Amino acid sequence: MTLDELRDKIDNIDDALLKLYNERMELVHQVGEVKNTTGAPIYRPEREQAILNRLKSQNKGKLTDAAIDALFLEMFAVARNLELPEGVAYLGPEASFTHQAAESKFGAMSAYLPISSIPGVFREVKKGTAKFGVIPIENSSNGIVSDTINCLDEYDLKIIAEVCLDVHMAFATVSDDITKITKIYSKDIAFGQCRKFLQDLGLDEVEHIPVESTVKAAKLALKDETAAALCPAVAAKLNNLPIRFNNVEDDTNNRTRFFIISDFENASSGNDKTSLLVRLSNKPGSLVNFLNDFEEAHVNLTKIKSHIVEGESIFFIEFHGHQNDAHIKPILEKHKDEIKILGSYVKEIDDI
Ligand SMILES: O=C(O)C(=O)C[C@]1(C(=O)O)C=C[C@@H](O)C=C1
């Protein structure tokens, strides 16, 4: 076939797709009307997951699972915005890793609100300025984010989804001579994550200047020929700062997990994870007794981390399953005075 013939065929398919998209959006609009009468949430991660699973299992074409995710998640985000435009608050600034995590769930069309602190994200969701909040919960190198645990404890909001992102750093500078670099801007945590790279290039001795965000680091490096920034590639691109080296972090498996919080509870998807905060009495064996109940019910515990809130020790616990599953509900009921259920949500990863 000639190029023109191939393009004619593509045009025909695009016309058919447009018609189908509009037909689908018409139905989505009707779903929105039904939900409006009952006050049901627009975002249903478990329904989206079920659609994706069904499509992937019947897929016989060139599309990979990741490609199906990319196409359909964007379409769901557009659909949700047509049902009811809802804001997304995230730990900013723009181009932060949390922003990327937010965009991976809420697509290009959502109204985003960068917030400068984790408690600020919780406040804005609680007030209703935004329907959803996106915050980091843990990083594979740096562990649990205490601010997020504190806020999950303090606020009556639910975890409704998790997102996991590979965290890659770029070394970006306007200088084309690395030996002229006298200072590097980044977030304090990032210098430690890129220590070997800095040593290898003889940049461990130059001044390391910690700033609030890697986006700010990119902005500062842009103004100074003797400076560089360690920042996500998107932050460098957003500021037109040339990237000299990509993926400069020591641990190339560096990953961060994020939570999406809102004011509603998910229904079961059949592939869920649940997060809890647990305050146990200060008696010998109380933790073992608590955990035994999960073992006896064959519940797979995936995480247990102790955390101090105002001098008091609490546990952050996660397990596979939904809080309403028949084998889990009785355990949560038995311990209801000791636990705070933070949410059940579609399991994206087994553990970070
Ligand atoms: O099924 C629903 O509840 C819908 O609102 C429709 C739809 C979709 O586009 O298929 C859109 C948003 C929800 O998150 C899940 C699915």
UniProtKB/TrEMBL annotation:
Q: Reply yes or no: does the keyword Cytoplasm apply.
A: yes
Q: Which residues form the Prephenate dehydratase domain?
A: 87-263
EC no.? 4.2.1.51, 5.4.99.5
Q: Where do the ACT domain residues begin and end?
A: 275-352
Its keywords, alphabetically, are: Amino-acid biosynthesis, Aromatic amino acid biosynthesis, Cytoplasm, Isomerase, Lyase, Multifunctional enzyme, Phenylalanine biosynthesis
Q: Which InterPro entries match?
A: ACT-like_dom_sf, ACT_dom, Chor_mutase/pphenate_deHydtase, Chorismate_II_sf, CM_dom_sf, CM_II_prokaryot, G/b/e-P-prot_chorismate_mutase, Preph_deHydtase
Annotated pathway: Amino-acid biosynthesis; L-phenylalanine biosynthesis; phenylpyruvate from prephenate: step 1/1; Metabolic intermediate biosynthesis; prephenate biosynthesis; prephenate from chorismate: step 1/1
Pfam families xref list: CM_2, PDT
* PROSITE patterns membership: ACT (PS51671), CHORISMATE_MUT_2 (PS51168), PREPHENATE_DEHYDR_3 (PS51171)
Gene3D superfamilies according to UniProt: 3.30.70.260, Chorismate mutase, Periplasmic binding protein-like II
**Can you give the residue ranges of the Chorismate mutase domain?**
1-87
Subcellular location, in the record's words?
Cytoplasm
Role played: Catalyzes the Claisen rearrangement of chorismate to prephenate and the decarboxylation/dehydration of prephenate to phenylpyruvate.
This chain's protein is named Bifunctional chorismate mutase/prephenate dehydratase
| Lineage, opening ranks | Bacteria, Pseudomonadati, Campylobacterota, Epsilonproteobacteria, Campylobacterales
From the UniProt record, report the name of the gene that encodes this protein: pheA
